[in-house]
Specification:
The complex is a heterodimer of chains A (197) and B (386). With 197 residues, chain A is mainly α. Chain A contains ten helices and no strands. Chain A has a domain at 18-105: Rna Polymerase Sigma Factor, Chain: A (Orthogonal Bundle). Chain B has four domains: 11-50, no CATH class; 63-105; 115-259, Jelly Rolls; 265-355. Classes of the chains: A mainly alpha (197), B alpha+beta (386).
Protein backbone atom coordinates (compact mmCIF):
# COMPACT_ATOMS: atom_id res chain seq x y z
CA UNK A 1 0.00 0.00 0.00
CA UNK A 2 2.79 2.38 0.96
CA UNK A 3 4.53 1.59 -2.34
CA UNK A 4 1.36 2.51 -4.14
CA UNK A 5 1.03 5.77 -2.28
CA UNK A 6 4.61 6.67 -3.09
CA UNK A 7 4.17 5.69 -6.72
CA UNK A 8 1.02 7.78 -6.98
CA UNK A 9 2.81 10.76 -5.50
CA UNK A 10 5.54 10.39 -8.11
CA UNK A 11 2.99 10.34 -10.89
CA UNK A 12 1.03 13.39 -9.90
CA UNK A 13 2.69 16.66 -10.85
CA UNK A 14 3.50 18.30 -7.56
CA UNK A 15 3.29 22.06 -7.78
CA UNK A 16 5.61 23.41 -5.16
CA UNK A 17 4.96 26.91 -6.48
CA UNK A 18 1.42 26.61 -5.18
CA UNK A 19 2.90 26.51 -1.70
CA UNK A 20 4.42 29.93 -2.15
CA UNK A 21 1.06 31.40 -3.16
CA UNK A 22 -0.60 29.69 -0.22
CA UNK A 23 2.10 31.03 2.09
CA UNK A 24 1.63 34.53 0.70
CA UNK A 25 -2.10 34.25 1.38
CA UNK A 26 -1.36 32.97 4.86
CA UNK A 27 0.85 35.99 5.47
CA UNK A 28 -2.20 38.11 4.68
CA UNK A 29 -4.09 36.26 7.43
CA UNK A 30 -6.12 34.09 5.08
CA UNK A 31 -7.66 31.33 7.23
CA UNK A 32 -8.44 29.17 4.20
CA UNK A 33 -4.76 29.23 3.21
CA UNK A 34 -3.80 28.11 6.71
CA UNK A 35 -6.29 25.27 6.32
CA UNK A 36 -4.57 24.24 3.08
CA UNK A 37 -1.16 24.16 4.77
CA UNK A 38 -2.67 22.37 7.75
CA UNK A 39 -4.17 19.64 5.58
CA UNK A 40 -0.89 19.20 3.75
CA UNK A 41 1.40 18.94 6.76
CA UNK A 42 -0.78 17.95 9.74
CA UNK A 43 -0.12 14.21 9.69
CA UNK A 44 3.63 14.57 9.35
CA UNK A 45 3.79 17.23 12.05
CA UNK A 46 1.63 15.10 14.34
CA UNK A 47 3.71 11.96 13.67
CA UNK A 48 6.95 13.76 14.48
CA UNK A 49 5.41 15.17 17.66
CA UNK A 50 4.05 11.78 18.66
CA UNK A 51 7.37 10.00 18.20
CA UNK A 52 9.36 12.72 19.90
CA UNK A 53 6.98 12.98 22.87
CA UNK A 54 7.18 9.32 23.85
CA UNK A 55 3.91 8.38 22.22
CA UNK A 56 1.81 10.78 24.32
CA UNK A 57 -1.11 11.40 21.96
CA UNK A 58 -2.52 14.27 23.98
CA UNK A 59 0.83 16.06 24.10
CA UNK A 60 1.36 15.40 20.39
CA UNK A 61 -2.07 16.88 19.60
CA UNK A 62 -1.25 19.95 21.73
CA UNK A 63 2.13 20.32 20.03
CA UNK A 64 0.56 20.06 16.57
CA UNK A 65 -1.97 22.72 17.52
CA UNK A 66 0.81 24.97 18.85
CA UNK A 67 2.83 24.50 15.67
CA UNK A 68 -0.02 25.75 13.47
CA UNK A 69 -0.86 28.62 15.82
CA UNK A 70 2.81 29.65 15.74
CA UNK A 71 2.76 29.22 11.98
CA UNK A 72 -0.09 31.71 11.70
CA UNK A 73 1.50 34.23 14.08
CA UNK A 74 5.04 33.93 12.74
CA UNK A 75 4.50 33.29 9.04
CA UNK A 76 5.29 36.96 8.44
CA UNK A 77 8.86 36.19 9.46
CA UNK A 78 9.20 33.58 6.71
CA UNK A 79 11.16 35.30 3.96
CA UNK A 80 11.32 32.44 1.50
CA UNK A 81 15.12 32.21 1.66
CA UNK A 82 14.75 28.67 3.06
CA UNK A 83 12.38 25.91 2.04
CA UNK A 84 9.03 26.35 3.75
CA UNK A 85 9.15 22.74 4.97
CA UNK A 86 12.54 23.35 6.59
CA UNK A 87 11.17 26.43 8.35
CA UNK A 88 8.09 24.53 9.47
CA UNK A 89 10.05 21.57 10.83
CA UNK A 90 12.25 23.97 12.76
CA UNK A 91 9.03 25.19 14.42
CA UNK A 92 8.08 21.57 15.10
CA UNK A 93 11.44 20.76 16.69
CA UNK A 94 11.31 23.85 18.94
CA UNK A 95 7.68 23.25 19.91
CA UNK A 96 8.37 19.63 20.78
CA UNK A 97 11.36 20.70 22.90
CA UNK A 98 9.08 23.11 24.78
CA UNK A 99 6.34 20.53 25.10
CA UNK A 100 8.82 17.95 26.36
CA UNK A 101 9.86 20.26 29.16
CA UNK A 102 6.25 20.74 30.21
CA UNK A 103 5.27 17.13 29.79
CA UNK A 104 3.98 15.68 33.01
CA UNK A 105 1.79 12.93 31.72
CA UNK A 106 2.96 9.35 31.58
CA UNK A 107 1.82 7.01 28.84
CA UNK A 108 2.87 3.42 28.45
CA UNK A 109 4.88 3.56 25.27
CA UNK A 110 4.15 0.20 23.78
CA UNK A 111 0.42 0.40 24.46
CA UNK A 112 0.16 3.69 22.66
CA UNK A 113 2.40 2.84 19.77
CA UNK A 114 0.94 -0.57 19.16
CA UNK A 115 -2.26 1.12 18.01
CA UNK A 116 -0.63 2.05 14.70
CA UNK A 117 -2.90 0.76 11.97
CA UNK A 118 -2.14 -1.29 8.88
CA UNK A 119 -4.91 -2.25 6.49
CA UNK A 120 -5.46 -5.03 3.99
CA UNK A 121 -3.62 -7.80 5.87
CA UNK A 122 -4.56 -11.00 7.63
CA UNK A 123 -5.15 -10.53 11.38
CA UNK A 124 -1.97 -12.46 12.14
CA UNK A 125 0.18 -10.46 9.70
CA UNK A 126 -1.46 -7.26 10.83
CA UNK A 127 -0.74 -8.04 14.46
CA UNK A 128 2.89 -8.93 13.71
CA UNK A 129 3.32 -5.75 11.72
CA UNK A 130 1.77 -3.61 14.43
CA UNK A 131 3.90 -5.25 17.06
CA UNK A 132 7.06 -4.66 15.03
CA UNK A 133 6.09 -1.04 14.37
CA UNK A 134 5.39 -0.58 18.06
CA UNK A 135 8.78 -1.98 19.05
CA UNK A 136 10.58 0.21 16.53
CA UNK A 137 8.73 3.31 17.67
CA UNK A 138 9.51 2.53 21.29
CA UNK A 139 13.19 2.05 20.44
CA UNK A 140 13.21 5.35 18.54
CA UNK A 141 11.51 7.13 21.44
CA UNK A 142 14.22 5.83 23.77
CA UNK A 143 17.05 7.29 21.70
CA UNK A 144 18.69 10.45 22.97
CA UNK A 145 17.01 13.50 21.39
CA UNK A 146 20.10 14.39 19.37
CA UNK A 147 20.01 10.92 17.77
CA UNK A 148 16.22 10.71 17.57
CA UNK A 149 15.64 13.92 15.61
CA UNK A 150 17.76 12.98 12.57
CA UNK A 151 15.98 9.61 12.45
CA UNK A 152 12.52 11.22 12.55
CA UNK A 153 13.37 13.87 9.98
CA UNK A 154 14.91 11.26 7.69
CA UNK A 155 12.31 8.52 7.94
CA UNK A 156 9.07 10.34 8.74
CA UNK A 157 9.70 13.46 6.66
CA UNK A 158 12.09 12.04 4.09
CA UNK A 159 14.44 15.03 4.32
CA UNK A 160 17.94 14.97 2.82
CA UNK A 161 21.03 15.31 5.02
CA UNK A 162 21.35 18.92 3.89
CA UNK A 163 17.75 19.70 4.89
CA UNK A 164 18.10 17.91 8.23
CA UNK A 165 21.24 19.97 8.88
CA UNK A 166 19.27 23.17 8.19
CA UNK A 167 16.42 22.18 10.50
CA UNK A 168 18.72 21.11 13.34
CA UNK A 169 21.18 23.95 12.67
CA UNK A 170 24.21 21.69 12.52
CA UNK A 171 26.57 20.50 9.80
CA UNK A 172 25.84 17.79 7.27
CA UNK A 173 28.72 15.79 8.74
CA UNK A 174 27.11 15.93 12.17
CA UNK A 175 23.85 14.64 10.69
CA UNK A 176 25.71 11.73 9.06
CA UNK A 177 27.53 10.91 12.27
CA UNK A 178 24.35 11.03 14.40
CA UNK A 179 22.45 8.88 11.93
CA UNK A 180 25.32 6.37 12.03
CA UNK A 181 25.08 6.16 15.79
CA UNK A 182 21.28 6.07 15.78
CA UNK A 183 21.15 3.28 13.19
CA UNK A 184 23.59 1.18 15.16
CA UNK A 185 21.68 1.79 18.41
CA UNK A 186 18.42 0.75 16.76
CA UNK A 187 20.07 -2.30 15.20
CA UNK A 188 21.44 -3.38 18.59
CA UNK A 189 18.19 -2.82 20.52
CA UNK A 190 16.05 -4.59 17.95
CA UNK A 191 18.46 -7.26 16.72
CA UNK A 192 16.23 -10.01 18.13
CA UNK A 193 13.55 -8.92 15.63
CA UNK A 194 15.75 -8.97 12.57
CA UNK A 195 13.93 -11.94 11.08
CA UNK A 196 10.67 -9.98 11.27
CA UNK A 197 11.68 -7.43 8.62
CA UNK B 1 45.73 1.99 5.86
CA UNK B 2 43.60 2.48 9.00
CA UNK B 3 42.71 6.01 7.91
CA UNK B 4 40.98 4.65 4.84
CA UNK B 5 38.31 2.81 6.81
CA UNK B 6 34.82 3.96 5.93
CA UNK B 7 32.73 3.28 9.04
CA UNK B 8 31.94 6.97 9.50
CA UNK B 9 30.41 7.03 6.03
CA UNK B 10 28.13 3.99 6.38
CA UNK B 11 24.83 5.87 6.75
CA UNK B 12 25.65 8.46 4.12
CA UNK B 13 26.62 5.65 1.72
CA UNK B 14 23.41 3.76 2.52
CA UNK B 15 21.31 6.88 1.83
CA UNK B 16 23.22 7.72 -1.34
CA UNK B 17 24.33 11.05 0.11
CA UNK B 18 27.98 10.75 -0.97
CA UNK B 19 29.59 12.23 -4.06
CA UNK B 20 30.07 9.67 -6.84
CA UNK B 21 33.80 9.26 -6.33
CA UNK B 22 33.45 8.89 -2.56
CA UNK B 23 30.62 6.44 -3.00
CA UNK B 24 32.74 4.33 -5.36
CA UNK B 25 35.60 4.38 -2.86
CA UNK B 26 33.30 3.16 -0.06
CA UNK B 27 31.86 0.41 -2.27
CA UNK B 28 35.31 -0.80 -3.20
CA UNK B 29 36.52 -0.68 0.38
CA UNK B 30 33.53 -2.65 1.67
CA UNK B 31 34.36 -5.47 -0.68
CA UNK B 32 37.73 -6.01 0.91
CA UNK B 33 37.39 -4.85 4.55
CA UNK B 34 35.54 -7.21 6.89
CA UNK B 35 35.24 -4.82 9.91
CA UNK B 36 33.83 -2.02 7.74
CA UNK B 37 31.41 -4.43 6.06
CA UNK B 38 30.20 -5.62 9.49
CA UNK B 39 29.73 -2.00 10.55
CA UNK B 40 27.80 -1.27 7.35
CA UNK B 41 25.58 -4.30 7.99
CA UNK B 42 24.80 -2.94 11.48
CA UNK B 43 23.83 0.44 10.01
CA UNK B 44 21.75 -1.24 7.32
CA UNK B 45 19.88 -3.28 9.92
CA UNK B 46 19.12 -0.15 11.95
CA UNK B 47 17.98 1.64 8.80
CA UNK B 48 15.64 -1.22 7.92
CA UNK B 49 14.07 -0.95 11.36
CA UNK B 50 13.78 2.84 11.02
CA UNK B 51 11.97 2.34 7.71
CA UNK B 52 9.13 0.73 9.70
CA UNK B 53 8.17 4.16 11.11
CA UNK B 54 4.78 5.13 9.80
CA UNK B 55 2.95 8.40 9.41
CA UNK B 56 0.12 8.62 11.94
CA UNK B 57 -3.04 10.58 11.16
CA UNK B 58 -3.56 13.68 13.27
CA UNK B 59 -6.86 13.68 15.21
CA UNK B 60 -9.66 15.69 13.58
CA UNK B 61 -10.01 17.75 16.74
CA UNK B 62 -6.68 19.54 16.14
CA UNK B 63 -7.99 21.85 13.43
CA UNK B 64 -11.04 22.75 15.51
CA UNK B 65 -8.74 23.67 18.40
CA UNK B 66 -6.56 25.81 16.14
CA UNK B 67 -9.60 27.68 14.83
CA UNK B 68 -11.01 28.08 18.32
CA UNK B 69 -7.75 29.58 19.57
CA UNK B 70 -7.46 31.89 16.58
CA UNK B 71 -11.09 33.02 16.90
CA UNK B 72 -10.89 33.70 20.59
CA UNK B 73 -7.44 35.21 20.25
CA UNK B 74 -6.36 32.92 23.02
CA UNK B 75 -2.95 32.12 21.61
CA UNK B 76 -1.87 30.41 24.79
CA UNK B 77 1.52 29.99 26.33
CA UNK B 78 2.81 33.25 24.91
CA UNK B 79 4.10 35.91 27.21
CA UNK B 80 2.34 39.26 27.01
CA UNK B 81 5.33 41.61 27.33
CA UNK B 82 5.03 42.53 23.69
CA UNK B 83 1.45 43.85 23.89
CA UNK B 84 2.36 47.47 24.59
CA UNK B 85 5.03 47.87 21.89
CA UNK B 86 2.80 45.93 19.55
CA UNK B 87 -0.05 48.37 20.17
CA UNK B 88 2.27 51.31 19.42
CA UNK B 89 3.52 49.58 16.28
CA UNK B 90 -0.09 48.88 15.24
CA UNK B 91 -0.96 52.58 15.70
CA UNK B 92 1.96 53.60 13.51
CA UNK B 93 1.01 51.01 10.89
CA UNK B 94 -2.60 52.24 10.94
CA UNK B 95 -1.49 55.83 10.45
CA UNK B 96 0.84 54.90 7.59
CA UNK B 97 -1.75 52.62 6.01
CA UNK B 98 -4.39 55.35 6.31
CA UNK B 99 -2.04 57.81 4.63
CA UNK B 100 -1.33 55.36 1.84
CA UNK B 101 -5.04 54.69 1.36
CA UNK B 102 -5.71 58.42 1.18
CA UNK B 103 -2.94 58.85 -1.36
CA UNK B 104 -4.24 55.94 -3.37
CA UNK B 105 -7.82 57.17 -3.39
CA UNK B 106 -6.62 60.56 -4.60
CA UNK B 107 -4.35 59.40 -7.37
CA UNK B 108 -4.22 56.86 -10.16
CA UNK B 109 -2.94 53.44 -9.23
CA UNK B 110 0.70 53.10 -10.15
CA UNK B 111 2.49 50.34 -12.01
CA UNK B 112 1.44 48.50 -15.14
CA UNK B 113 -2.26 48.70 -15.95
CA UNK B 114 -4.39 46.88 -18.45
CA UNK B 115 -6.71 48.50 -20.99
CA UNK B 116 -10.41 47.86 -20.41
CA UNK B 117 -13.09 48.43 -23.05
CA UNK B 118 -16.81 48.55 -22.32
CA UNK B 119 -18.72 46.03 -24.46
CA UNK B 120 -22.14 46.86 -23.01
CA UNK B 121 -23.97 48.22 -19.98
CA UNK B 122 -22.04 49.91 -17.17
CA UNK B 123 -19.03 47.93 -15.99
CA UNK B 124 -17.37 49.33 -12.85
CA UNK B 125 -13.79 49.46 -11.61
CA UNK B 126 -13.59 49.72 -7.84
CA UNK B 127 -17.28 50.70 -7.77
CA UNK B 128 -16.80 53.56 -10.26
CA UNK B 129 -18.59 53.35 -13.61
CA UNK B 130 -16.16 53.33 -16.51
CA UNK B 131 -16.69 55.11 -19.81
CA UNK B 132 -16.02 53.39 -23.11
CA UNK B 133 -12.41 52.84 -22.08
CA UNK B 134 -10.51 52.66 -18.83
CA UNK B 135 -7.50 51.09 -17.11
CA UNK B 136 -7.33 48.27 -14.58
CA UNK B 137 -4.49 48.48 -12.07
CA UNK B 138 -3.07 45.77 -9.82
CA UNK B 139 -5.43 45.16 -6.92
CA UNK B 140 -8.45 46.76 -8.60
CA UNK B 141 -11.76 44.95 -9.09
CA UNK B 142 -13.71 45.05 -12.33
CA UNK B 143 -17.40 44.19 -11.86
CA UNK B 144 -20.22 43.70 -14.32
CA UNK B 145 -23.92 43.63 -13.48
CA UNK B 146 -26.66 41.65 -15.23
CA UNK B 147 -26.53 43.86 -18.33
CA UNK B 148 -22.88 44.82 -18.68
CA UNK B 149 -19.85 43.23 -20.32
CA UNK B 150 -16.23 44.31 -20.73
CA UNK B 151 -13.03 43.33 -22.49
CA UNK B 152 -9.62 43.46 -20.83
CA UNK B 153 -6.35 43.46 -22.77
CA UNK B 154 -3.99 41.06 -21.00
CA UNK B 155 -0.85 43.21 -21.37
CA UNK B 156 0.21 42.46 -24.95
CA UNK B 157 -0.49 38.73 -25.01
CA UNK B 158 -4.24 38.52 -25.56
CA UNK B 159 -7.56 39.54 -24.14
CA UNK B 160 -10.27 38.42 -21.78
CA UNK B 161 -13.99 39.07 -22.18
CA UNK B 162 -15.89 39.47 -18.95
CA UNK B 163 -19.52 38.34 -19.06
CA UNK B 164 -22.42 39.80 -17.03
CA UNK B 165 -22.57 39.31 -13.26
CA UNK B 166 -18.83 38.80 -12.93
CA UNK B 167 -16.20 40.06 -10.52
CA UNK B 168 -12.55 40.06 -11.58
CA UNK B 169 -9.40 41.48 -10.00
CA UNK B 170 -5.94 42.05 -11.46
CA UNK B 171 -3.47 40.38 -9.11
CA UNK B 172 -0.17 40.65 -10.92
CA UNK B 173 1.33 41.69 -14.24
CA UNK B 174 4.98 41.46 -15.17
CA UNK B 175 7.18 39.94 -17.85
CA UNK B 176 6.93 36.44 -16.44
CA UNK B 177 3.42 36.33 -15.02
CA UNK B 178 0.01 37.87 -15.61
CA UNK B 179 -2.60 36.85 -13.06
CA UNK B 180 -6.30 37.58 -12.65
CA UNK B 181 -8.68 36.50 -9.92
CA UNK B 182 -12.19 35.46 -10.95
CA UNK B 183 -14.30 35.58 -7.79
CA UNK B 184 -17.58 34.87 -9.62
CA UNK B 185 -19.09 34.95 -13.09
CA UNK B 186 -17.57 33.97 -16.41
CA UNK B 187 -14.64 35.01 -18.56
CA UNK B 188 -13.44 33.98 -22.01
CA UNK B 189 -9.70 34.15 -22.53
CA UNK B 190 -7.85 34.30 -25.86
CA UNK B 191 -4.12 34.15 -25.27
CA UNK B 192 -1.42 34.23 -27.92
CA UNK B 193 1.75 33.69 -25.93
CA UNK B 194 4.00 30.95 -24.61
CA UNK B 195 2.52 28.73 -21.92
CA UNK B 196 2.62 29.57 -18.23
CA UNK B 197 2.38 33.33 -18.60
CA UNK B 198 -1.31 33.84 -17.88
CA UNK B 199 -3.11 32.52 -14.80
CA UNK B 200 -6.60 32.89 -13.38
CA UNK B 201 -7.15 32.24 -9.68
CA UNK B 202 -10.59 31.01 -8.63
CA UNK B 203 -11.86 29.96 -5.19
CA UNK B 204 -11.54 26.32 -6.27
CA UNK B 205 -8.15 26.33 -8.01
CA UNK B 206 -5.90 28.03 -10.53
CA UNK B 207 -6.23 27.91 -14.34
CA UNK B 208 -2.83 28.07 -16.00
CA UNK B 209 -2.79 28.97 -19.67
CA UNK B 210 -0.73 26.73 -21.92
CA UNK B 211 -1.32 28.82 -25.08
CA UNK B 212 -5.02 28.65 -25.78
CA UNK B 213 -8.58 29.92 -25.74
CA UNK B 214 -11.06 28.95 -23.07
CA UNK B 215 -14.01 29.97 -20.92
CA UNK B 216 -13.98 29.72 -17.17
CA UNK B 217 -17.06 30.09 -15.01
CA UNK B 218 -17.29 30.41 -11.22
CA UNK B 219 -20.63 29.99 -9.43
CA UNK B 220 -21.77 31.55 -6.16
CA UNK B 221 -20.33 28.62 -4.18
CA UNK B 222 -16.87 29.13 -5.64
CA UNK B 223 -17.05 25.96 -7.75
CA UNK B 224 -15.94 26.37 -11.35
CA UNK B 225 -16.10 24.80 -14.79
CA UNK B 226 -13.58 25.17 -17.60
CA UNK B 227 -14.27 24.67 -21.32
CA UNK B 228 -11.21 24.69 -23.60
CA UNK B 229 -11.67 25.65 -27.25
CA UNK B 230 -8.03 25.84 -28.36
CA UNK B 231 -4.74 24.49 -26.98
CA UNK B 232 -4.38 23.34 -23.38
CA UNK B 233 -5.22 24.66 -19.94
CA UNK B 234 -3.88 23.24 -16.70
CA UNK B 235 -6.04 23.34 -13.56
CA UNK B 236 -4.32 23.07 -10.23
CA UNK B 237 -4.90 23.05 -6.52
CA UNK B 238 -1.92 22.11 -4.33
CA UNK B 239 -0.72 18.73 -5.62
CA UNK B 240 -3.79 17.96 -7.74
CA UNK B 241 -3.54 18.88 -11.40
CA UNK B 242 -5.54 18.22 -14.56
CA UNK B 243 -4.40 19.27 -18.03
CA UNK B 244 -7.40 19.91 -20.25
CA UNK B 245 -7.13 19.80 -24.07
CA UNK B 246 -9.24 21.57 -26.70
CA UNK B 247 -12.75 20.16 -26.89
CA UNK B 248 -12.63 19.06 -23.28
CA UNK B 249 -13.98 20.44 -20.03
CA UNK B 250 -13.14 20.01 -16.37
CA UNK B 251 -14.93 20.99 -13.17
CA UNK B 252 -13.30 22.24 -9.98
CA UNK B 253 -14.85 22.09 -6.53
CA UNK B 254 -13.98 24.44 -3.71
CA UNK B 255 -11.79 22.68 -1.17
CA UNK B 256 -11.17 19.74 -3.50
CA UNK B 257 -9.63 21.20 -6.64
CA UNK B 258 -9.81 20.00 -10.23
CA UNK B 259 -11.80 16.93 -11.16
CA UNK B 260 -11.04 14.69 -14.12
CA UNK B 261 -11.03 16.21 -17.64
CA UNK B 262 -13.48 14.85 -20.20
CA UNK B 263 -14.33 15.49 -23.83
CA UNK B 264 -17.54 17.46 -24.07
CA UNK B 265 -19.04 15.13 -26.69
CA UNK B 266 -19.02 12.25 -24.19
CA UNK B 267 -22.42 10.86 -23.24
CA UNK B 268 -24.42 12.62 -20.56
CA UNK B 269 -24.28 9.55 -18.34
CA UNK B 270 -20.49 9.52 -18.68
CA UNK B 271 -20.20 13.18 -17.67
CA UNK B 272 -22.65 12.97 -14.77
CA UNK B 273 -21.02 9.79 -13.45
CA UNK B 274 -17.56 11.31 -13.73
CA UNK B 275 -18.69 14.30 -11.69
CA UNK B 276 -20.05 11.95 -9.02
CA UNK B 277 -16.81 10.00 -9.00
CA UNK B 278 -14.77 13.18 -8.61
CA UNK B 279 -16.81 14.94 -5.96
CA UNK B 280 -19.29 12.61 -4.21
CA UNK B 281 -18.63 12.13 -0.50
CA UNK B 282 -20.07 8.65 -0.33
CA UNK B 283 -17.68 5.85 -1.31
CA UNK B 284 -20.41 3.55 -2.63
CA UNK B 285 -21.71 6.37 -4.86
CA UNK B 286 -18.21 6.84 -6.20
CA UNK B 287 -17.84 3.13 -6.92
CA UNK B 288 -21.15 3.04 -8.78
CA UNK B 289 -20.19 6.16 -10.70
CA UNK B 290 -16.87 4.62 -11.72
CA UNK B 291 -18.67 1.56 -13.11
CA UNK B 292 -20.89 3.84 -15.25
CA UNK B 293 -17.89 5.85 -16.45
CA UNK B 294 -16.10 2.70 -17.57
CA UNK B 295 -19.11 1.22 -19.32
CA UNK B 296 -19.91 4.49 -21.13
CA UNK B 297 -16.33 5.24 -22.21
CA UNK B 298 -15.51 5.46 -25.94
CA UNK B 299 -11.99 5.19 -27.42
CA UNK B 300 -11.76 9.00 -27.27
CA UNK B 301 -12.49 8.91 -23.53
CA UNK B 302 -9.34 6.96 -22.79
CA UNK B 303 -7.79 10.34 -21.97
CA UNK B 304 -10.19 10.53 -19.01
CA UNK B 305 -9.51 6.93 -18.03
CA UNK B 306 -5.77 7.61 -18.01
CA UNK B 307 -6.33 10.18 -15.23
CA UNK B 308 -8.52 7.71 -13.38
CA UNK B 309 -5.66 5.18 -13.32
CA UNK B 310 -3.93 7.52 -10.89
CA UNK B 311 -7.02 8.49 -8.94
CA UNK B 312 -8.82 5.22 -8.25
CA UNK B 313 -7.99 2.87 -5.41
CA UNK B 314 -5.57 0.00 -6.09
CA UNK B 315 -8.54 -2.39 -6.08
CA UNK B 316 -10.31 -0.48 -8.87
CA UNK B 317 -7.22 0.13 -11.00
CA UNK B 318 -7.40 -3.24 -12.75
CA UNK B 319 -10.93 -2.47 -13.99
CA UNK B 320 -9.80 0.88 -15.37
CA UNK B 321 -6.78 -0.66 -17.10
CA UNK B 322 -8.84 -3.47 -18.64
CA UNK B 323 -11.37 -1.00 -20.01
CA UNK B 324 -8.62 1.20 -21.44
CA UNK B 325 -6.92 -1.79 -23.05
CA UNK B 326 -10.23 -2.89 -24.58
CA UNK B 327 -10.71 0.55 -26.16
CA UNK B 328 -7.17 1.26 -27.40
CA UNK B 329 -4.13 -0.97 -27.66
CA UNK B 330 -1.58 -0.09 -24.98
CA UNK B 331 1.83 1.02 -26.28
CA UNK B 332 4.59 -1.55 -26.68
CA UNK B 333 6.36 -2.45 -23.43
CA UNK B 334 3.39 -1.27 -21.36
CA UNK B 335 2.18 -4.24 -19.35
CA UNK B 336 -0.90 -4.72 -17.21
CA UNK B 337 1.21 -5.59 -14.18
CA UNK B 338 3.41 -2.53 -14.66
CA UNK B 339 0.46 -0.17 -14.91
CA UNK B 340 -1.29 -1.71 -11.91
CA UNK B 341 1.90 -1.14 -9.93
CA UNK B 342 1.95 2.46 -11.23
CA UNK B 343 5.24 1.98 -13.05
CA UNK B 344 6.18 5.57 -13.84
CA UNK B 345 7.74 4.91 -17.24
CA UNK B 346 4.85 2.80 -18.48
CA UNK B 347 2.21 5.27 -17.36
CA UNK B 348 4.17 8.07 -18.95
CA UNK B 349 4.53 6.14 -22.20
CA UNK B 350 0.80 5.64 -22.36
CA UNK B 351 0.20 9.29 -21.61
CA UNK B 352 2.51 10.22 -24.52
CA UNK B 353 0.58 7.88 -26.85
CA UNK B 354 -2.66 9.55 -25.86
CA UNK B 355 -1.11 12.98 -26.52
CA UNK B 356 -1.81 14.09 -22.99
CA UNK B 357 0.47 16.97 -22.15
CA UNK B 358 3.85 15.53 -21.14
CA UNK B 359 6.99 16.70 -19.37
CA UNK B 360 8.79 16.83 -22.72
CA UNK B 361 6.24 19.27 -24.04
CA UNK B 362 6.48 21.20 -20.82
CA UNK B 363 10.25 21.53 -21.25
CA UNK B 364 9.85 22.75 -24.81
CA UNK B 365 7.31 25.28 -23.61
CA UNK B 366 9.70 26.46 -20.93
CA UNK B 367 12.19 27.24 -23.68
CA UNK B 368 9.63 29.30 -25.56
CA UNK B 369 8.61 31.04 -22.37
CA UNK B 370 12.26 31.94 -21.68
CA UNK B 371 12.65 33.24 -25.22
CA UNK B 372 9.51 35.31 -24.85
CA UNK B 373 10.32 36.83 -21.49
CA UNK B 374 13.92 37.58 -22.40
CA UNK B 375 13.46 38.93 -25.90
CA UNK B 376 9.91 39.66 -26.99
CA UNK B 377 8.97 40.74 -23.48
CA UNK B 378 11.84 43.22 -23.55
CA UNK B 379 10.66 44.63 -26.87
CA UNK B 380 7.30 45.26 -25.23
CA UNK B 381 9.06 46.98 -22.37
CA UNK B 382 8.02 44.32 -19.88
CA UNK B 383 11.23 42.40 -19.30
CA UNK B 384 12.85 42.86 -15.96
CA UNK B 385 9.66 44.01 -14.24
CA UNK B 386 8.87 41.95 -11.21
Amino acid sequence: MLDQIVATREQLPVKESTDSRTIAACQQGDREALRVLFEKYKDRVYSIALYSLSGDEMAAGDATQQVFLKLMTRIGQFRGDAEFATWLYRLVVNTCHDEHRKQRRFVALADSFLQTSAGGESPRASYARKELAGRVQTAVAELKPKLRWPILLKYVEGLSYEEIAQVLKCSKGTVASRLNRAHKALGRRLSHLKNEI
Amino acid sequence: MFSKHVTSLSSAYFHDELATRESQRVAKHLLSCTPCRADFDDVKLGARFAEQLQIVSAPDSVWASVVDQLDNKRVTRMRLWFVKPLAIAAMIILLVAGGLLWLRSNSDPGGARWNVARLGGSPRIDSQNIGDRSKLGVGQWLETDATSRAQIDVATIGNVEIDPNSRVRLLETNSSEHRLELARGRLSAHILAPPKLFFVNTPSGVAEDLGCAYTLEVDESGNSILHVTLGWVSLQLIDRESSVPAGAACAMKRGVGPGTPYFEDASELFRVSLSKFDFADNQSDREAALASVLSEARPRDVMTLWYLLLRVSAADRAGVYDRMASLVTPPQDVTREGVLNLNAKMIDRWRAQLSIRSETIREKKSFWKKLWTETLGRIHGLAGKR
